[in-house]
Amino acid sequence: MKKMTALFTTAAMSLTALFGCANAFAEEGAGDVWTGEIEPVVVTLLNAGTDNPYLDQVAEKLNEYLGDKIGVEVSFRQVSIFNAASQYTMWIGGGETVDLLTIAYAPVSAFTGMNMLEPLDDLLQYAPHIQELAEEGYAIYCPSADGHIYGIRTLNPPVSNGDGMYFWKEDLEEAGLEYEDNQLVTLEDIELIVSKVKELHPDAYVGVYGSAPRSGFTIEADPLGANITSGVILGTESTEVVNYFETEEYQDYIKLLRKWYEEGLVKKDAATTDALEGGSMTNDPENCRMMWNEYNTGIIASYEEATGKEVVALRTAKRNQNALTDTDCYTGIPVTCEHPEAAMRFLDMMYSDMFVENTCYFGIEGVNFDYTDETKTAYVANPDNGFWALGSGNRMLEPMQGVYKEDTVQKYDQFAEEINSSPTKGYGFLYDPANMTNQITAIDAVLQEYRAALETGSADIDTVYPEFIKKLKANGIDDVIADKQAQFDAWLAEN
Amino acid sequence: MKARKKKVNFKRFIPAYIMLLPGLAYFVINNYIPMYGITIAFRKLDFKKGILRSPFCGFDNFKFLFASGNMGPIIRNTVLYNLVFLALGAIVPVAFAILFNEIRAKRVKKLYQTVVLLPYLMSMVIVSSLVYNFLSADMGFINKSILEPLTGQTVSFYQEKKFWPFILTFVHEWKGLGFSMVLYLSTLLSISDDFYEAAKIDGATRLQQIRYIMLPFLRPTIIMMLILGISKIFNSDFGLFYQVPKNSGVLYPVTQTIDVYVYNALMNQNNIMMSSAASVAQAAIGFTLVIVSNLIIKKISPDDSIF
What we know:
heterodimer, A: D-Maltodextrin-Binding Protein, domain 2, 14% strand
């Protein structure tokens, strides 16, 4: 019965979408020509903390392209990804007009709890391509506890969700070890490789920093649409929500890092530094010969350029298909939006039109970036006039960074297959932390206190780790996990 | 006998009131109207309804501040550091001001004054980098140029709690000294030479002149600075306690103050209700402390109270 209802709703929505759009387009058989009113849409773009000087030119280029396609005149507003959540609260609180908000590092509930976002259910009729992607099985909608959809998730190429420890290929060969790029290995393998590299190159160290804890790269954990703070399920078969920081895998990670710290494989200041201060493969290529990072072609290209060596990444955890995590991006329409329908039409273009999506991310071809091959499957940013935005849309439409390599596409496909074939039991479920805000806030403060020191090996595990767990419990982590488990069980019973 | 009331001619003061208007407007717009935002701390905010129509939720937004006894060490740090800074703030800059007052060569005096004032003009991020360049375990001056050559060992300052009460106090004094000193120095410069001449004729030594002339003149400024300091005893210099220890979690037991805790707890969230709750709590306690300390001063020395 449920399936029938879903089928009926989908069919009805698709028809409405087609009908709605058909109405707005030219009635005189002019094809895709918009005859309605042109409405302004203010779109937020996330940057990495430095303002982008090309916003107006890029908007102009886009408007030129959009012309009379969808009845939208776009303009941009940029904000640092690190301040976005708090900045949006100020904008919306101050009644400023913004039509599309790209949100990162904050769960949907942080916005719906204060009624800052409009439900998108009725607006989806203006986004037929987004609906198509959802029907194809992509977990693209961000639902909320009240059953409405409040955000459209950024579709990343699956490979960008992977991560691994990067090594110089020649170091592995020198040590007599044979590993393929993107190979899945155990923590023991990594320990062995690192010790051999250190033997051969006594000044070598592993790039880890307190600013970016990396334990997550070694644990197959699904945070069920929220932060790991509120508990995770492990692997693809478990339905038990557990404390991430009490798992055996977490303890193994911090023990290994402590060992490395004591052996001089991790810098003494690691807990209080970032990749810029602490040394990385790009700024200290001679000695920082090993580091954990996300796996993508852009990072490989930058490491290979800095080191002048071939670099391989070995993955330490299998990636599963799980729900939205708090580090994912999604786009919503705020309550201060003046043209929600136009905003939705533009968002739909970001999920279906390669030119729109690429221009929003990389700027203007020939000015900010260039394609490196004829098929436009790879690009390089202009080092002097780069345009770099983070955020929404269908990133699967984007070219890959760096030089196009045939086998990279194969790796992308393999990886996508691996992820798509292993959904966790929580795939499709999103935890709503609204009742636990006080506890989660207090737990966040505890994490700030201990995580960097433990995950860089800078703290004595025998004394500090038990203290950390005790403090997490004192601040209510078990209540939060129980709440998550209860919501998850209820969802499992229904699905 | 009842004194006859003098008739005040308000017309005479009209120009003065007109001159007051811009300042008054600034205070009303900038300091008083936004105070209605205090209400956010007690509401469950709903942006669709607006601030004033959002439902009240009592003290729910304050709960995270007092979750599981975290507040004990944080309040202790905030208050104790401030007390130490207040005490030192009443001694070190006064001493420096008196010493500066003794310098006769004008050029040298200006040079010294600039040197002492310079750190005050630096941003805390720069100060944090300077401190890091001294204390870093991997490449810091103290470790690489002093400790390692002499002892063969290094100290991970950013992982050792015991050093930080001293480091933070030193950095605070080093950075703030110049500004406080200028305040006291300007008071000293306003003392008429007649006092010193009269004292000299009476046979007063230099120390006696300091004790019986300079310190009494400085007393109102010292008290005013003290009361202003007390009002901020629940606030802390965020840059000093967050940037300088590089937010090292291991050091929290001795470096975390209320502002740093609130920042760390709410950094990943956009919960302005809880942020408002934290600042309302700080402001309420600060306000109470100012009233109480002023009352105490009024009892001890009525002339020196500020209201």
